[in-house]
Write a structure and sequence with these properties.
Aspartate Aminotransferase, domain 2, three-stranded antiparallel sheet, binds pyridoxal-5'-phosphate, 2 domains, Aspartate Aminotransferase, domain 1, single chain, about 450 residues
């Protein structure tokens, strides 16, 4: 099936010359975050806030009610969160990280431990800044890029139980599942795993929260891969996922296809009430939370749109299409292909570049120079953390180039350009040299670092 939409508005893009690209990336400190978008031809930096909104979402933008208190958009958002996610209370926030910060400030204390499948980078940083420690409990198969498994985002229940026994349930304020598992390659979590985690958590009276940015993509994989879900609508599966949780933090810049927006969904009124004063102090009044009224409309409409079975099938097909093209060219990618992005195994692509010289980020730079395509390196530059006891820097297990695909934005021909560019880099991979840091802040350094070729 072709795209279940037609295109009504277009935005011109342009490919600058190779010489210009070489100059631009040098001026950007060999960091793709330093590029201006006019110098990028196909932008796969992120699928966050970069999707194309529908005519219905744009209509909501015009209809937006900008009242400070009690705007119509908030009522629409409440309705959408109740219908689509199944939560009674909604805390609006300007994006996902603001939503999670509001939640974590209330529930995380110094010395707390939070089991995750894997935390997203801002989520990890936020918990650490509050004195908590996120712990990966993802199943080991998540670290094997070539291992085919339908649900590589699952929590390993043995690891989870061992962690609870080791630190004690009183030090665990909640368990969090990221669906899909962004940091682990956009891999899904099975419904059976969501259910089992909830059961373990209930034994110890620990709440479960979902980091829900791609809950609809996750539901699609459940529909396609998990027994008993083939004939269920995406909408029904999405709701069932949340029934095994006590709440969610949600970046609405992902599956709901809004350009900005986030929220917390909850059923616990007491927790909701505790968040409200922080919401007012940090984001804005409780019915707009740092968003314009029009943005609330776009988010509310997007929440319904993300439940469209055909739209989701088409989106995932395009991501798979890019993955298949790379796979056929012999380029190692994380398999199966995740929901929102293709993750290229940069360590396998550039085996001669040691992790200290950032193969993932090097590959991102090379792809930009080759074809004007912007992906992002997710490896030692982004995810190295000092060991708590020894202070020794521990690099992550994988070096990945992420090619994140915005929803409804690019065609398969754009994907062909991406694949061809990467194939050309692959042919000359032996000549590619790594990068080293000139300047970088101590945390979240991949966003701000300036690098130079080795
Ligand atoms: C994007 C994202 C966030 C943070 O949301 P923002 O809207 O970018 O602030 C949190 N968790 C996951 C899994 C994400 O993908």
């Amino acid at each position: 099936m072709a795209e279940p939409f037609r295109i009504k508005v277009v935005e011109p893009i342009r490919l600058i010359s190779r010489e210009e690209r070489q100059r631009k990336i040098r001026e950007a400190g060999y960091n793709v975050f330093g590029l201006v978008s006019d110098d990028v031809y196909i932008d796969l930096l992120t699928d966050s806030g970069t999707s194309a909104m529908s005519d219905n979402q744009w209509a909501g933008i015009i209809l937006g009610d900008e009242s400070y208190a009690g705007c119509r958009g908030f009522s629409h958002l409440e309705g959408a969160v109740r219908d689509v996610l199944g939560f009674n209370y909604v805390v609006p926030a300007h994006q996902g990280r603001a939503a999670e910060r509001l939640l974590f400030q209330v529930v995380v204390k110094k010395g707390d431990v939070i089991p995750f499948n894997m935390p997203f980078d801002t989520t990890d940083a936020c918990i650490r800044s509050l004195g908590g420690r996120p712990v990966n409990c993802v199943a080991d198969i998540a670290y094997e890029p070539q291992a085919i498994d339908p649900f590589k985002g699952n929590i390993d229940l043995v690891k989870l139980r061992a962690l609870i026994t080791e630190v004690g349930a009183q030090r665990i304020p909640f368990i969090m599942l990221t669906i899909t598992n962004n940091a682990g390659g956009g891999q899904p979590v099975a419904m059976s795993n969501l259910k089992a985690v909830k059961e373990v958590a209930s034994e110890y009276n620990i709440p479960v929260f979902i980091d829900a940015a791609r809950c609809a993509e996750n539901a699609y994989f459940i529909q396609q891969r998990e027994g008993g879900y083939q004939n269920k609508a995406l909408a029904e599966i999405i709701r069932e996922q949340f029934s095994y949780s006590d709440g969610c933090a949600f970046s609405c810049k992902k599956d709901p296809m809004a350009n900005i927006g986030g929220l917390i969904g909850l059923n616990d009124e007491e927790l909701y009430q505790k968040i409200l004063p922080l919401l007012i102090a940090q984001e804005g009044f409780i019915t707009y939370g740092g968003l314009a009224g029009r943005d609330l409309e776009a988010v509310a409409r997007g929440l319904y749109e993300m439940t469209d079975d055909d739209l989701m099938a088409n989106r995932i097909r395009q991501v798979e299409y890019l993955g298949e093209r790379l796979d056929k060219a012999g380029i190692q990618i994380i398999k199966p292909v995740g929901g929102h992005a293709v993750f290229v195994d940069a360590a396998a692509f550039l085996p001669h570049i040691p992790q200290d010289y950032f193969p993932a980020d090097t590959l991102a730079v090379e792809l930009y120079v080759e074809s004007g395509v912007r992906g992002v390196g997710l490896g030692a530059l982004a995810f190295s953390i000092p060991d708590e006891e020894t202070g020794e820097i521990i690099p992550p297990k994988m070096e990945l180039l992420r090619l994140a695909i915005p929803r409804r934005v690019y065609t398969d021909r754009h994907m062909d350009v991406v694949a061809e560019g990467l194939k050309r880099v692959y042919e000359r991979r032996n000549q590619v040299r790594g990068l080293r840091i000139m300047h970088a802040p101590p945390v979240l350094r991949h966003f701000l670092a300036r690098l130079e070729p080795v």
